[in-house]
Structure formats: structure tokens, C-alpha cells
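This part of the workshop introduces the protein records we will be handling. Getting from the letters to the C-alpha cells is the skill we practise here. An example says more than a description, so a record of this kind follows:
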Amino acid sequence: MSASDEASTQSPEADTRFDTVVVGAGVAGLVAARLLAAAGRTVVVVEARDRVGGRVSTERRDGRVTDLGASWVHGVNDSAVAAAADAFGMRTVEFTVGGYQPDSRPIAYYGPDGERLSDAEARGFAEDVHALDATLLGVVAESAPDASYRDVTEAALALQDWDAERVQRVREYLEHRSEEQYGAWIEDLAAHGLDDDAIDGDEVVFPDGYDVLPRRLAEGLDVRLEHVVKGVRWSADGVEVTAQGPMGEVVLHAGSVVVTVPVGVLQSEEFTIDPPLPEPVAGALSRLRMNAFEKVFLRFERRFWDEDVYAIRQQGQESRRWHSWYDLTTAHGSPTLLTFAAGPTAVEIRDWDESRVVESNLEQLRRLFGDRVEEPTEVHVTRWQDDPFSRGSYAYMTVGSTTDDDDALAIPVGGVLHLAGEATWTDDPATVTAAFHSGHRAAERVLGQSIPIETLWRDESAVPVVNPVR
């Protein structure tokens, strides 16, 4: 008898009672479920989407692979995600973005007049950014609890002996960095919002798609797709999870629950936790927000930009909406530029159709490259703000938040309710790495013991095949 046949013969009561219910089949949820299953616990994963992966979403069209959500492993040194990807046989291509770096990669800078900066001018600008960042470390350390990233960067700029033009160019850069790193306007981001902005080792992307990772993690698990969780009730006796599935309402009972939905869903009226989250968890959640951050992929018949550059950046007033384009040609196998609509720009273009987004981009590219710019042959514009199961791309720290809020969000509630996901991990939030480690932590807390994270890929046979993804 197959695993699926065996599951279908179980009584309805047996099919709704588990040791642990995991809400969300993103990376955090799958890691937690896989480790719990490996430890012998009965686990079910309920997922609102018709696929696993959450914000790891790969589109395959006409033989082309495009990661619409997460794309990078930000720093492969001692990375559990990189180790898992390697064990799962996932091909990688080195593509280091380095936290919106000003240099260290060939970057073509274009000044406010649309002319490319000379190598000397580009080096001078990068040196200004490095000088500002060196000053910024001390300013952030001494900042008030309610300081914004704008407050601290302006204070650091005031300490430089620069003319107005140099100040403005670096100010623009800091605005763009805030948007590109966290999808938030500089005045809305907490002063400590970029404290985690450190990369250890090369960064890589996956030419065959990042979604291979969650699909491999899901193998052998009981994952129930198209089950939209509406509410979680908890008490000292256990938990009750109510979901709307394809066949109607389902109520699942368990001794514990791991909730991995994004901050935007946790804060919505459509998802309830009863009793409500206590302090300090509730306070931490209230100080986080989902960002506005969209990807725009532009594929072309031929490359019209210089082949020796990794990124194209423009400065000045024209950079307010579109400022950086990344050359993904090596990773995608055809001439491709990626740009981000972040913060105010993402909000502005939310109601634009695809053609308007493209034309707005081409207008700026023509400022820099003239008649060489052709119409793209293929376009992808993500719409994470409109996704009801994410409500944005990832979370950021609002003014008044501290780095402690990420860990506070993960404090176990009543010994039975655990929150996990990218927003609950302090060291590297807003990444797959954060989701990965938060799922590991949640599993250990449910078990009340440590479990090696390598279990995820070194002992696959330890995960019993309970049910196929369904």
C-alpha cells in the first residue's frame, strides 16, 4: 500500500490530530516540519498557495528560469542554505551584490547629466560613500531610540567637509540603499535598520531556480496545499488550527503549532490568533512592517550596455524612480537587466500596467544609451504588494523598532505557539538564510532539545514519507 493510499484509509479524527501543525510551506515552515518529522513527530504543513516555497517563487517559461521572489544566498561562507543547496545538487552562479555596494564590482556610474563618470570620478564617489559609512557607525551607535535612518545619515553627512554637490550625491545613494535593501523610504526605516547589512563570502544565484530548495525540503512531508488558515487558537492544552481547504473547512488539532506566515499576514484581520499574542511578542510585531519592493526583469535581443559592467547606476534627479540596473546575462543566458521598484516607487507603480513600467524604464535607459536601446523581448514585473499571502516582499524595522524585536517576535507563547520566518531572525533578517535558521530554532524549541541543522540534508532517510504534497 502506498503512503497516499494508507493516509486515505485513516479515520477523519486521525487525519486532524498531530503532534505539530506548521502553518506555511515556505522555507521556514518546511525546515521546521522536516526536522520535527526526522525526530519522529507527526507533522502536517498547511499552505494557502497551490505550491510550496512561499516567497521563493520560480517561473519557468519557454525554457527560461526567473526567480520572482528570493534570488540570492547572501554570503556562502559557513552558510547552511549554501550547504543544503550543494547537497541537493543545485547549480550556482556567483553574483555578488554586496549590500548595495558602491564599488568592488565593475559599476558604470552616470552623472546627473546622463554622461558616464570617468574611472577616477567613480572611485572618488565610492570613497565618499566609504567615508560616510565609517562615520555612520558611531552616529548610529549613539542615536536615539526613535531616530530614523534619515536622521543618522544626515548627522553623518553634516560631519563631512564636503560641498553641497558631494553631499547630495551621497545622500541620494543612501536613499537608494535604504530602498533597495529594505524596500522602505529612508525616513520610515529605523536608525538600526541596516545594522545586519554584512556579507560573508561570495553571493550566488541559482540558474535552475531557487524553488528547487523548498521542493526538496518538502519531499516526504504531509503538505496540504490550498489550505488558507483563518485562525489559530491556543491554550496550555494545545492548539487548534482552522483552515479553508478545497473541500471545505478543516480543523486541525495538535500539541503545538509553528506559524511561519509573513508579518503582513500576521497583522491582517484575515488571520487571527486567539488569545491575542502577549507582550513582548505583540509589541515587536507592531513595530515591523511589510515593505513595498518589486522586481522588474527586462530581456533584450542584444546587449546595448557595456559588457564589462556588473551594474548600471545613474545619479541626480532622474534617479529618483529608477537608479540601478543589474546585468543578469550570465545567470539567465540571454541579455537581461534587473531593476527594483522599491519604497515610494513600488507604491507609485502599483497600479501601472506592465507597458507603463517598461516605458518608464526605457526612458531612463535612453538617457544613458540613446538609440541603442531597443524594446525588450520579454518582461516580468512582480506584484508582491498585491499577494494576499505575503502582502509585501519582506519585513523592515519601522522608526522606534530595535534589533531585539526580531528575536522577541519568536519568543514561544504559552509553550505551544511558535512564530518563525525571516522577520524573526536578528542576524540576517529579510533573507532565506533567516527563514532557514528560524525554522531550525522553532523545531528545537518544540522538541525541547537540539537537533543538528545538517539533518535536513545529511539524513534524508530519517524523514518518513507520510503523504505526498497535495
In short: Residues 68 and 347 are 18 Å apart (CA to CA). DSSP finds 15 helices and 21 strands in the chain. The domain at 58-99+202-209+291-386 is CATH 3.90.660.10 (Polyamine Oxidase; Chain A, domain 2).
